[in-house]
Write a structure and sequence with these properties.
The structure holds 2 protein chains of 2 kinds. By secondary structure, chain A is mostly helical. In chain A, 35% of the residues lie in helices and 0% in strands. The longest helix of chain A has 18 residues. Among the domains of chain B are: 275 residues, Alpha-Beta Complex (Amidase signature (AS) enzymes); 56 residues, no CATH class.
Chain lengths: 94, 486
């Protein structure tokens, strides 16, 4: 087994997902199949090979630190599930 | 010829000569939707009244001499692109009612150029998929055979262009999502170089791979669309600060003297015999036009698939953390629930199975104890994939081969086998890992009547080479003139 049911539950918690028992069982099986196929990567000797995170040589794109207009409150909150016109309202945290 | 059968350039010529108005063209495409959408289902959202208003404005602009390069031409866009005031779902229930407060950079460019937006195209949820079956709103169907998938993730877009409900369009490609559906629907699809087109306002899937590009009926049409959407955008830090060439000028160059690499790893067991025959025939046509075919090797092609399905889900798991039920989109708030319950219930209700699968896979690959073995290793293999291409391009000007191992498969055929589904991207995703431009051009039909595509891959920022090769092939053949029997 590449990944156990317990690990699937742990990863689901990290990813903020609530899985049904049926979905957990199916995902455990499918993730095992996929991760087994990914073992192919271990066949390659990559010692000393640098990682590519971006395909092109990119340098940090900097701009002057100047205040610019952004979305106003009305537009920014237009899609809010719940708001008071000034803030996003969320369920009680503490 | 029916108005919905026009290419983009033909439509522009007719508009220019006042043989048709934008309102007439727009009405013709809206009528075409009425006739075909029950079978194709390319669109998730249509905006007929807004479209006609835009068409009237385009006709006025043209009459006053203020016509942009796409003035008055109607089309839908992939629903991954934010459109101000028009809902943008990304194929996901979690964004079912999301109405963007701004236009994506490229959408603003298209609007400035005068396009008439007809609506938004169906797609695999968050662009994760190869068939549109992962859409939260049901699949699109291949215009050539309603029982076949149109490809994905830009399946609705390719199906719309093929069925004549868009005269051109723009899709996005993270591992083949422009080229694969273009191939399956018999249209042209180009993924430009990473950084060539701004992703500002393009809903993120895998940020080191995502790129937007044209889906059109001809290579010349793709050159027009690319010329409009390409260019530097300070709002996208990965956008390339390079001048945009005159793509139309590349069209007549031909292939005489060009060296075209044929990677042996693209002609392997599992490649459908009809696809192989059509692609080899296309290569012979290019040879006849003066190109030289050169055997090359991309030895890490097989490994690219494994690396891709670590890197893309890892980036997705991070990008999709934003869907938390707080700022926009679905929010599931049960009585007495706390913030954590809201996160868990919203995400589990709003995301479909494939998105959950990839978020899980990506989170696992990035989690403590597994990072080096998966994400770290995949990044190193990505370097090897890049080097393969670098070495090949020391010998050749472009690479040619199949886009997909088979023609479009049946709807439902692979939904329960994610690994089999992932294999349909084997010839396309390595170009995303390497950031290269690639294009699919129609090169034949299978005996079942399903389109087959020829893939052309070129070095970074060599879109002109793709256009030159694609155009030369298109001019010598008539596959692009065929229309689906709808």
């Amino acid at each position: 087994m590449k990944i156990s049911a317990e690990e699937v539950a742990h990863v689901a918690a990290l990813a903020r997902l609530r899985l049904s028992d049926q979905m957990s069982a199916k995902l455990t099986e499918q993730l095992n199949d996929i991760l087994t196929a990914m073992d192919k990567l271990a066949e390659l000797d990559t010692s000393g090979v640098a990682s590519t995170n971006h395909a092109l040589e990119l340098t940090g794109a900097m701009r002057p630190d100047e205040a610019r207009p952004g979305l106003d409150h009305e537009r920014a909150l237009a899609n809010a599930p719940e708001s008071d016109g000034q803030s996003f309202i969320v369920p009680k945290v503490i | 010829m029916e108005l919905h059968d026009l290419t983009l350039i033909q439509a522009l010529e007719m508009l220019d000569k006042k043989e048709v108005s934008s309102v007439e063209l727009t009405r013709a495409l809206l009528e075409r939707m009425e006739a075909t959408e029950d079978r194709v289902r390319a669109y998730l959202t249509t905006i007929p009244e807004l479209a006609l208003e835009q068409a009237e404005a385009a006709d006025q602009a043209r009459a006053q001499g203020g016509a942009g390069p796409l003035c008055g031409v109607p089309a839908g866009l992939k629903d991954v692109l934010c459109t101000q005031g028009v809902r943008t779902t990304c194929g996901s229930k979690i964004l079912e009612n999301f109405v963007p407060p701004f236009d994506a950079f490229l959408v603003a460019r298209l609007k400035d150029a005068g396009m008439v937006l007809l609506g938004k195209h169906n797609m695999d949820e968050f662009a994760m998929g190869s068939s549109t079956e992962n859409s939260g709103f049901g699949p699109s169907h291949n215009p050539w055979d309603p029982n076949a998938i149109p490809g994905g993730s830009s399946g609705g877009t390719a199906a719309s262009v093929a069925s004549g409900t868009s005269l051109f369009s723009v899709g996005t490609d993270t591992g083949g999502s422009i080229r694969q559906p273009a191939s399956h629907c018999g249209v042209v699809g180009m993924k430009p170089t990473y950084g060539r087109v701004s992703r500002f306002g393009l809903v993120a899937f895998a940020s080191s791979l995502d790129q937007a590009g044209p889906i059109t009926r001809t290579v010349a049409d793709a050159a027009v669309v690319l010329g409009v959407i390409a260019g530097y955008d300070p709002a996208d830090s990965t956008s390339a600060p390079r001048p945009v060439p005159d793509y139309a000028a590349a069209l007549g160059r031909g292939v005489k003297g060009l060296k075209l690499g044929v990677p042996k790893e693209f002609f392997i067991e599992g490649l459908d015999s009809e696809v192989e025959a059509a692609v080899k025939q296309a290569m012979a046509v290019l040879e006849g036009l003066g190109a030289e075919l050169v055997p090359v090797s991309l030895p890490h092609t097989d490994y690219a698939l494994a690396a891709y399905y670590i890197i893309a889900p890892a980036e997705a798991s991070s990008n999709l953390a934003r869907y938390d039920g707080v700022k926009y989109g679905m929010s599931v708030r049960h009585e007495g629930a706390d913030l954590m319950d809201m996160y868990l219930d919203t995400r589990s209700t709003g995301f479909g199975d494939e998105v959950i699968r990839r978020v899980m896979l990506g989170t696992y690959a990035l989690s403590a104890g597994y990072y080096d073995a998966y994400y770290g290793k995949a990044g190193q293999v990505r370097t090897l994939v890049r080097r393969d291409f670098d070495q090949a391009f020391e010998q050749v000007d472009a690479i040619v081969g199949p886009v997909t191992p088979t023609p479009a498969f049946g709807i439902g055929q692979k939904v329960d086998d994610p690994l089999q589904m992932y294999l349909s991207d084997v010839f396309t995703l390595s170009t995303n890992l390497a950031g290269l431009p690639g294009m699919s051009v129609p090169c034949g039909l299978s005996t079942a009547g399903l389109p087959i595509g020829l893939q052309i891959i070129a070095p970074h920022f060599s879109e002109e080479t793709l256009l030159a090769v694609g155009q030369a092939y298109e001019q010598a053949t008539d596959h692009h003139l065929q229309r689906p029997p709808l």
